[in-house]
Structure formats: C-alpha cells, structure tokens
Amino acid sequence: MLNDILYGYAFHTILKGSAALGFTAGILGVFIITKKSSLMAGASASAALAGMLISAAFTGTRNGSVIMTAAGVMCLLSFFLAKFIADTLKINKFMVHGLIASVNFGLCMVLFTYLRQEKNALAAGMEKFILGEASTLMKSEADAALYVCAASVLITALCIKRFKAVLFSPELARTAHIPSAFYETLMFLMTAAVTIVGIQTVGILFMGALFVIPAVTAGLWTRAFIPAALISGLAGGISGAAGGFLSALQSNISSGPSVIIFAGLLLLISALLAPGKGLLIKKRAGYFYRPSGRQTK
Amino acid sequence: MTSFIELEIIAITILAALACAVPGTIIALRGSPFITDTSAKSSVFGFAAGFASAWWLPSAALIPLGTAAALFGIWAANKIRAAKLMEKNSAASSVSSVLLAAGILIINGFTGVSGADISTVTAGDLAFVPFDRIKAGGYDMGPAAVYILGAVLFFNLMCVLVFYKEIKLSSMDEGYARSSQLKVDAVNILISFMTALTAASAFRVTGAFMAAAFILAPSLTARFYAKRLSALIITSALICVTACLTGFGLAYRANVLIAGTIVCVMGAFFIISAAAAPETGIIPMLSEKKKKRFRTGMLIASAHLYLREKESPEGKSVEAARLHTAMAWSGSFTGKIILALEREGLAEERNGLLALTEKGREKAEEALGIKMRRGLETKSP
C-alpha cells in the first residue's frame, strides 16, 4: 500500500508541485517581509479566489486561463486600490491591507453561498481552496504551477540586484535610474501569480503565511539578502514537500494547515538553535553576544 | 415579510457589529491592525479545542477558550518581538497562522474528514444563533447571544468610558504617556483583551475571519467624517447600524450569507467614503489641489508678465506662446490660465500680445512682494 503511494504518479505530482511552490514562495517571501506587506499577500489570496468565483458565476467556463485571468485581475485591482488609497489619503497601509483582506474573504463567502444555490459544480470544487487540498492537484495544474514557479525564480535571479536596490535603498535606485514602480509591480505580479497557482495546494487562509514563515526563518540564520532568499526557499520547499506528503498519506488532513505546521516547526527549531539569534545559543553565549561574532563584556 | 426570528437575527447582528466597532475605533487610532488579525486567526485554536471537547463542555465555553487562544497569540507575538527574533508584523502573522493551522488540524482530526465542514469557523452560523435560547422558570427569555453580545458591548463601552483619558493618551502619544507615568502596558493589555473577547464572542455571527472587517471597517470609514475619539465612536456606530440593515436587506433578497454581505457593504462604504468624503476624500482633495495649482499659476503668470514689462520698456507685453515656453507649462494649461486672466480682468490682449491691466499689475506686485517692500521703503525715512 505504502509502496503504491510512494511510487505512484499522482503522489509525485503532488510532491513536486508543493515543493516547487514552497521554494518559490520562500524566495518571494523575503521581499514581502522586507516590504512589510504580509497582510497584502493574504489579501491577494482572497482576491484571487474571489476572482475565480466571479468568473465561475458569470462565465461558467472551465477554461483554466479564463479563471486565472479573472483571479489575476482581481489581485491587481485590490493591490492598486490599496496602494492608491494608502498613498493619497495617508492612511496607515497595514489598516487598508487588513481591511481589504477581510472584505475579500467576505466576498468569497457571499459568492460561495450564491453559487451553492445555483448548484454550480465549479464553485463546489473551489470550496477546497479555503484550506487547500494538494491531492486534488491534476497534472495540468501541477505543470502550470511548475512553470509559474520556474519563471518567478528565473526573474528573481536575473533582477535580484535591482530588487535589492529598490527594497533597501530607494535613493540609490533613483540615482541609478532604476524604475522603482516597475520593479515593485513586478514583485507583486510574481507574488500574485504564485498565489493564484498556490491556493489550490495551500489555501487562501495560509497563502500569506507560506510567504512569511520561511522568510522569517531565514532571517534568523543570516542577515545577508541572497543567502536569506536561498535559505528561505529551502525552508519553504521542505515544508511544502513535507506538508504535501503528510496530506497525501492521511486523507483527513488538508494540505494547507499541514504545510504551515511544518513551516512553523522549522521556525521553532531555528528560533531555538540559530547562531547568534537562537534563544538556547544566546543563553549560553551570554546576553552580550553580538551577531557579528565579537563578544564584549 | 419579516418574522420575529428575523428581527432577532437583525438585533443580534447589530449588537455584534456595535460590540466590534468600539475596540475598532481605538485600533484605528493606533494604526496597528495586527491585534485584530492575530486574534481572529488565533481564536480558531481555542474554538477547535472547544469543538474537540464538545461532549463535556457547554457551547458557551467556546468564548473563553477563543479569548484565551487569541490572547495567547498576541502574547506570543509580543514575546517574540521582545526577544528581537523578528519584527512585529512578521511575528504576529507567523504565530497566528501556526495557531490557525493547528486549530484546523484538530478539527480535521476530530471529524475525520479532509476539508471537513469548517463553515462555522469561516462563515459563522448566524441562522442558528437565535435557536440557542435562555429559559427561566418556563418562560422564553430570548436568544442567549443577545445577552452575551449585549454584555460584551456594555463591557467595551464601560472600558472606553472609564479609561477614556488613558486610552486616548497612550494611542496618540505613547512617549508622552510613558513619561507621565501612565501604565501604557496595562492599557495595551486591556485593548488586546477587549479585541480578543469581542472577536471570540462575535464569531458565531461574523465568522472568525470576517470579524476583522467588522472591527476595522466602521472606524476606518468614520475617520473620514470625525476626528475626536467620542465622535469617532458615535459615527462608527451609525455606520455599523446602516451597514447591518442594508446588508441584511440585500442578503435576504438574494438569499446569501448575511455576515459576508454586511462585510461587503462595509467595504463599499469605505471605498465610497475614501473616494468622495467632503474635504478628506480623494476626489475633493484632488480637485482642491488642482484649484490651488491653477490659482498659483495665475499669480506666477501675472508676475512673469510684470517682470517682462520692466525688462523691455518698448514691448510692455509678452506673446502667449512665449509665456508657455518660459513657464514650461503644457499648452492647454497655459491657454486656460490666459483665459482666466482675461476673464478676471488681470490681463488683456493688445494687438496680438498679452499685457497686464492696472489691476493685474497690482496683483503681480502683491505676488512678488514689491508692494510691501515699497510700503516699507516709504515708511523708513
């Protein structure tokens, strides 16, 4: 039985999909926590599902590209709305993000109840997207996820220096004639694309956490940007694979929470053991320990 | 036709929304929504513990359990930040997500089905709330939720009334509050407790995740119309009641989720207010900015004409085309400025050239500060 599962085709699809998703989300997560827009990542997950449901309600098509486009449009709409409102009105951006996340979630719930009356089969399948269900991942969907992840990683690898400049030193970016707005939008587009292909595996409630937790874990191990991105990708990939594995073995476990539990486990281990910042390490080294390696009395 | 039970549902919804709005105003003043986000997500862990032990616990135990879990989430996030492991919002979202995941795994494991019906947690079960009734001496005393939410609303209002000064000071200027020996940490704990209790007790009405919108939306909308804390609370209460009634009406017509519709209505109110609230909305603000730019443009144009007059005594005027190049304005903007100058009698067209009138010259002198200087010069000797 176990052998059938371990060498089964579907199992490999799930494992590959969720590991790639975790890896990409981990890398992009470093950008997200640097920009402090973790709430926006959660908001875009709800927005993506709302877009999918709207497309199911109005077109009723099963065409994947139409559904994805609707989800993307909804994501971009809420991103630019939040940015515009927070920038022009000088309202705290976290408040706007939190509000938009919650309103999008409410919109999803309303659309679910509406489509349930209409007996819309497509929407019934989408109810799994709240918690995530990696075992419903089909070959085509897993392939789409792999392509999106590969493209995001490639773009990140090509533009990482510019992203770094835009994130950490806007003045430098301006003097070097790097168009900040373009790179910020590009970052959000990659986040949105990964979110759209990821909500089937991880679920809208946990998509934001899949970006944040691996990145935070990496932040405990190193302060340098590119190593942090790699460690974060690794942590995300491991937790994605482990969570997908557990969810595929145990039919009563949704994949979203299991992925996040593994990510949380890695975070806990790092918080205790990471050099410099880890709680156990710091206790032993005394409280005057400096992350740079020098000790002062 | 609305029956008695629907009136009860409306009353419960409005009570829940009002109870949420009170801590919401304080959170909107402080500008940190992480308390709401964390308590909404972490409380699910408490509910899961409650569901798992439902065979011996009464259903009312869900509220203290949810509150405790939410407070634990906030406490843990603060501890992690204090240990300098990570910054505040990352800590809050990691802790709350892990607690949420653990809670959902407990529910999954207890019910034994993947993707088990967690709609009570995500969407609430408002339709069933009125059936949970209190009976005293054989008489029906109404739904239990009315008493619970009424008590929470009363508690929140009393907290704000009693500690009005402390809450206001610690939200507006924390440094000053600390230096005047106000117990800011105690106030923070009080606000966390209010938020956690409200989110946990309203969750059957709002669902765990939409509670954040019930808390944030009315106060954020009210900020467009009011500035003082007391005025904010009253305005957000009004917005709450309006949104609840509108949302209930719409949801009743379309037969969809009530809490979700109310949240959507609240979101729509926020966007409409952000766009068009008088003075503070985007459209009035931008049009005011445009008007200001236009008025300044008129002054600059007349000043430019005045200076050209001084420079070239034979010309005494400037072509419209040259004004446009000298100021580096767009053609249409220059055209509008010239039309406005002529309309207000500041400048006129003399044989194809633009020249200032007497009134315009005065205005330009005023803009350049020449008149004032002259006044000083005549006075000084």
Annotate the secondary structure layout.
The complex is a heterodimer of chains A (297) and B (381).
Chain A: H1 2-6, H2 9-35, H3 38-58, H4 64-89, H5 93-117, H6 121-126, H7 139-168, H8 170-175, H9 180-202, H10 207-221, H11 225-249, H12 255-273, H13 279-285
Helix pairs in contact in A: 2-7, 2-9, 2-10, 2-11, 3-4, 3-5, 3-9, 3-10, 4-5, 4-9, 7-9, 10-11, 10-12, 11-12
Chain B: H1 4-30, H2 34-52, H3 62-82, H4 88-111, H5 119-123, E1 133-136, E2 139-143, H6 144-162, H7 164-172, H8 174-179, H9 184-201, H10 203-206, H11 211-222, H12 229-254, H13 258-276, H14 282-311, H15 320-327, H16 331-343, E3 347-350, E4 353-356, H17 358-368, H18 370-379
Antiparallel strand pairs in B: 1-2, 3-4
Helix pairs in contact in B: 1-6, 1-9, 1-11, 1-12, 2-3, 2-4, 2-9, 3-4, 3-9, 6-9, 11-12, 11-13, 12-13, 14-16, 14-17
Name of the CATH superfamily of chain A: ABC transporter involved in vitamin B12 uptake, BtuC
Q: For the terminal residues of chain B, how far apart are their CA atoms?
A: 88 Å
Share of helix among residues of chain B?
over 70%
Portion of residues in beta strands of chain A equals under 5%
Give the tags.
heterodimer, A: about 300 residues, mainly alpha, 13 helices, globular, B: about 375 residues, Arc Repressor Mutant, subunit A, two-stranded antiparallel sheet, two-stranded antiparallel ribbon, 18 helices, 4 strands, elongated
What would your notes on this structure say?
The complex is a heterodimer of chains A (297) and B (381). By secondary structure, chain A is mainly alpha-helical. Chain A has one domain (2-285): ABC transporter involved in vitamin B12 uptake, BtuC (Orthogonal Bundle). Helices cover 79% and strands 0% of the residues of chain A. Chain A has 13 helices and no strands. The mean pLDDT of chain A is 86. Chain B is mainly alpha-helical and 381 residues long. Chain B folds into two domains: 4-245, ABC transporter involved in vitamin B12 uptake, BtuC (Orthogonal Bundle), CATH 1.10.3470; 286-370, Arc Repressor Mutant, subunit A (Orthogonal Bundle). Chain B is built from 18 helices and four strands. In chain B, strand 1 (133-136) and strand 2 form a beta hairpin. In chain B, helix 1 (4-30) crosses helix 12. Chains A and B meet through helix 3, helix 4, helix 5, helix 10 and helix 12 of A and helix 2, helix 4, helix 11, helix 13 and helix 14 of B.
